[in-house]
Amino acid sequence: MLNYFKKMRQEKRAYRRYRQRVNALPDDLRQAMVALEKYLWNWAKDGSMADLLADILDMFEGAAADGLTVKEVVGDDIVAFADDLLSENQEKTWLEGQRQKLRQKAFKNQK
Q: How far apart are CA 32 and CA 61, in angstroms?
């Protein structure tokens, strides 16, 4: 039980640091990051999306340091950018689990 509380406290601290980093981004990148968070969390399985979001944040921080705009980072279509990330990280989404269940149920009695 003590380990549970310790882990929860560590995760809370990590989340606070993450939020501080997001809030430190220039306005356009911060708004895009917040929008991506909301979109990607819709597909998240457990807390596994946090690593992907941290990677995106690293990319956005680098872009901010280089003076790049959101479009220069994600392209003209932020939805396509997000969907590409999801397709590359399917193991982190509940959607892939649902797909597997459908495959198993649909073809349960076939070989």
A: 12
What backbone phi and psi angles, to 5 degrees, belong to 81? -60, -50
Q: How far apart are CA 22 and CA 8, in angstroms?
A: 21
Tell me the H-state helices in the chain: 2-23, 27-41, 49-66, 70-74, 78-88, 94-106
CATH numeric code, 2-106: 1.10.1900.10
Tokens of 68: 């790049």
CA–CA dist 85, 59 (Å, integer): 13
Domain positions in the chain: 2-106
The pTM of this model reads: 0.79
Rounded Cα distance, 25 and 83, in Å:
23
pLDDT (tens digit per residue) in 50-87: 888 999 999 999 999 999 999 999 999 999 999 898 88
